[in-house]
Backbone:
């Protein structure tokens, strides 16, 4: 929300004010120069930026040597959403990811590294985005299942790697992989929903572990994991809704990840993806009435009726136009790629998740001229993304259908 610096000035409040001022000036200039309906994605420039990452990377990317499957996923997913998949590179990418697959199961961040749930999630998502039989068959499902079981903790959560950290991130990665590859068994998910539920905080969001501060990335991982398990009703939905809507910045239009933090385009997905998932849950309970907590936040029954009308009309519970304006006017670089916020550099991570959030903001709006209008040379509409997995919806349907035909492997 817009901040007042009149009484107490801190480093945090000054930084927030600077970001607000910069963003509002950009939006004002854009509004003066052109109708907001003409906003567009600089597709060709983004394509060049993304394709360059499949050829070679600058020295600044050395720090991501243990995240190579992530780079494949971020680039492939962004290209898929833009409608420019690098099909001619698919076989090479599959071969590279096979090199990253560990002989004992799971994927590593790079060749001869240790198996880890985060690059395993990224590798499976990258292969799902490729969507070919060659890609699917490159995954050793039996070894993957054994790896997932080794990462399982008696508390219900999963460790990232052998003797590694345990949180809702690693737990979501495990559930996403198991769901896509048809590897979910009672043994694998025992106590998992209960562990995730224990991470909800007094604010309504989810921390990485029980007792931690609510955070956008962890909240997505936790709630998406519960949705995969079909257990989303176990948490306090009202508090989660209140927390989620409170983290869209009123002036900027984008989302922040935590209370009193700055807007960041990557949360366009981590926070934005919560709303389609919440929509699914609320549709299951159309008779849903606001709890005492929501009533205390001045959300009365009339507002609850408006909420149900929004669900019926296919509108998420956040300002979708505001988010699109932030991404398109403030985060795109004219030379290609998207950034965290004005003044920052572009990278593949923010390009991917900005476009994921933009897809969410675009693809459930009412069919109006504003949403469907495109520039002759530069369409503004992205492919629809599956909010549970962070991959294009049609590619998720393909991989789920493929592995549904395969037997669940039990070690």
Residues:
């Amino acid at each position: 929300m817009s901040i007042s610096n009149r009484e107490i000035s801190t480093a945090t409040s000054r930084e927030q004010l600077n970001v607000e001022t910069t963003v509002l000036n950009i939006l004002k200039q854009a509004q003066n120069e052109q109708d907001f309906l003409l906003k567009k994605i600089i597709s060709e420039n983004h394509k060049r930026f993304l394709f360059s990452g499949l050829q070679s990377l600058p020295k600044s990317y050395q720090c991501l040597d243990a995240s190579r499957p992530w780079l494949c996923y971020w680039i492939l997913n962004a290209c898929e959403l833009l409608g420019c998949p690098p099909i001619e590179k698919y076989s090479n990418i599959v071969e590279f990811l096979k090199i990253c697959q560990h002989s004992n199961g799971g994927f590593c961040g790079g060749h001869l590294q240790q198996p880890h749930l985060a690059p395993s999630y990224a590798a499976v998502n990258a292969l799902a985005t490729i969507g070919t039989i060659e890609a699917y068959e490159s995954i050793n499902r039996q070894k993957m299942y054994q790896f997932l079981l080794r990462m399982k903790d008696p508390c219900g959560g999963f460790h990232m790697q052998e003797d590694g950290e345990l949180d809702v991130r690693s737990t979501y990665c495990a559930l996403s992989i198991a769901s896509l590859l048809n590897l979910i068994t009672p043994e694998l998910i025992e106590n998992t929903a209960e562990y995730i539920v224990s991470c909800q905080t007094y604010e309504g969001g989810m921390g990485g572990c029980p007792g931690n501060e609510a955070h956008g990335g962890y909240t997505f991982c936790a709630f998406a994991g519960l949705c995969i398990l079909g257990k989303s009703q176990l948490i306090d939905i009202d508090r989660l809704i209140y927390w989620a809507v409170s983290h869209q910045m009123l002036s900027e239009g984008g989302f922040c990840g935590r209370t009193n933090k700055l807007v960041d385009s990557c949360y366009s997905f981590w926070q934005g993806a919560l709303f389609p998932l919440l929509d699914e849950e609320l549709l299951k309970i159309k008779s849903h009435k606001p709890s005492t907590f929501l009533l205390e936040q001045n959300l009365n029954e009339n507002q609850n009726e408006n909420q149900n009308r929004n669900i019926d009309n296919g509108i998420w519970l956040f300002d979708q136009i505001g988010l699109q304006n932030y991404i398109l006017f403030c985060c795109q670089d004219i030379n290609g790629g998207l950034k965290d916020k004005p003044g920052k550099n572009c990278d593949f991570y923010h390009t991917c998740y900005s476009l994921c959030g933009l897809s969410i903001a675009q693809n459930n709006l009412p069919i109006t001229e504003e949403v469907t209008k495109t520039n002759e040379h530069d369409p503004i509409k992205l492919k629809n993304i599956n909010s549970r997995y962070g991959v294009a919806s049609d590619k998720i349907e393909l991989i789920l259908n493929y592995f549904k035909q395969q037997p669940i492997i039990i070690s």
Q: What stands out?
A: The mean pLDDT is 88.
